[in-house]
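Narrative progress, year one. The postdoctoral researcher (J.K.) led the effort to move from monomer predictions toward full complexes, under supervision of the PI. The following entry was the first complex the group processed end to end, covering 654 residues in total.
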Amino acid sequence: MTQPLLELHNLNKSYGTFAAVKDIDLSVDAGEFLAIMGPSGCGKTTTLRMMAGLEEPTRGDIRLEGQQINDLPVWQRETPLVWQNLALFPYMTVRENVEFGLRMKKVPAPERQRRCAEWLDRLGIAGFADRNVAKLSGGQRQRVALARSLVLQPKVLLLDEPLSALDAHMSIRMQGELKRLQRELGITFVYVTHSHSEAFSLADRVVIMNAGRIEQLGTPQDIFLRPRSRFVAQFVGGISLFSGMLKTTKEGKIGIDSADGLLQIADPASAQSGTRCDLAVRADRINVTTQPGWGTNEVPCTLMSEEFAGAVVNLHLETAAGTGIVAQLQQRDLERLSARAGQQVYASWHPEDGVLLGAPALKAVA
Amino acid sequence: MSVLSAKLGLRRRGWFALWAAPLPVWFALFFLGPMLLLIAMSFWSVQNYRLTPDFSLSAWTYVLSLDFLWSTFWRSYGLSLLSAVLVSLLAFPASYAMAFLISPARRLTFLGLALAPFFTSYLVRIYSLQVFLGEGGVLPQLFHSVGLSGASLLNSYTALFLGHATLTLPVVLVLQTLALGNVDRTEMSAAVNLGARPLQVLRHIILPAARPGLTLGVLFAFLLSYAEFVSATYLGGGVFQTLPILLTDLIRGGQQWPRAAVVSLLMMAVLLLTSLVTVAWAYRQKGN
């Protein structure tokens, strides 16, 4: 078992009586792309700032390659951060910005110039080397911020919502470049974001934080297919939730007894009968029909609204008990369905598509 | 339609012009007017102790040929520049502490205290300094009691500097604190994150970012000290003849208004040039 590159042990940060980060345990491997995601105020940025040494943990340990770095002065750490607002130095040229860290660490001039030139070139900003950074475009500024950190050849690069200042088009282009850069360099990226698409498309593993704690840690597929809590399911989105008692019927069927009737599941794993459970069903697994009699779990509902998202359409349904259901359909399936808002429809899904929240990963869903 | 909007535009502009009017009027009446008079007067002549409108270069040739004018001029310039730099250095640690080390609420209290001397007359402050530093004053007595010379401290550069500092320290403190307070904290953190030690942050981030404000502090201290008359007279005594003293001597000595006007114009030209060069330096930008 190789040693993790970066480890957080029982990390806590409080401001007065407010606990911003609570008991975080996390280890990040060398070369891994880890995304930390969560709503604003969930503690993701505070965690990142503690890794960089910009915030002092109230309690707990931060280790880099097995060595505790809590008490190391910030300027001696090698955990450069790409800032949300980039924090470029406005009274310096592009070159001076990129050379800054090397200059501070007193790297001899020939090596400094060589490394600076290499990174200016690598990120395609060599042509602007003597420009004032205030006169660059958003994408160019982004590259300067990356070059300024990467020129230090860190083992881990911390990124705090680095693409949030860019327009959608530019953001997607930079995502591709970031991913390629990370693969080529083989260094660890810890990437804080509130955007699902960034986290899911870039990261090897995703941490979902809520109210200072880690709600779930896993691969993007893991989190998407098997959300562990209501919070994760709601945060990831596109998931319908039902709650009720776990129950085994006389016929031997297993399911949860919800306000919308008995909803069958394939395999309850370790969950016990009689416990209260949440059931999650992903929008793309839900079938919508105008006539009953199509599936095992069938719930009559009213079609509330349609939401177009390119090739697919999200249908928002509501059951008689008031439960909201989201179903994702292909455009052509919607045309075949020909239902209108306010009309009665039936939502159904296979038992194996229902995921019990909080339960360990189901064997059936591979 | 367009006629209507043009009319409205005109009325609106008239309305703003009305509110903006007092300043240009004031400026024309009490600055531009006297200024033009000053220029005109430098070409007048004095006959039998009477000022006579004229076009004569005699005041200019007389003043420009005075050797002691130039030595006084440069002494004045050097002393006030020295005072400005010393006051700025003296104020900097306090400004730094106010901008970075104490809470915003405390900062207001300290700034208020720093400005409190302005509530008394400057003349009163200089007179009390004279008593404080003079023969048998508090400071000489204190020096005497620890075995040093108990002689008067007046008529020295130290006394003159204390006078200058009394006038300029609060202004410099406020300008510096505001300048340092506006330095982007994220940029400072970013510098530390990239390996800069505290002193490197000061040199590479704080000083360049606060440069306009810090430079303006030096400039204001210089301008105020340069034109300063009261402490030059009462604290510096006759030992340090500065330009303002020369100016009053010229006027007292026989209605030499044209000569005084020439000296004033020279002073203004030098101050204007110094200010322009300083401000241009303070706001220069790097890169293209």
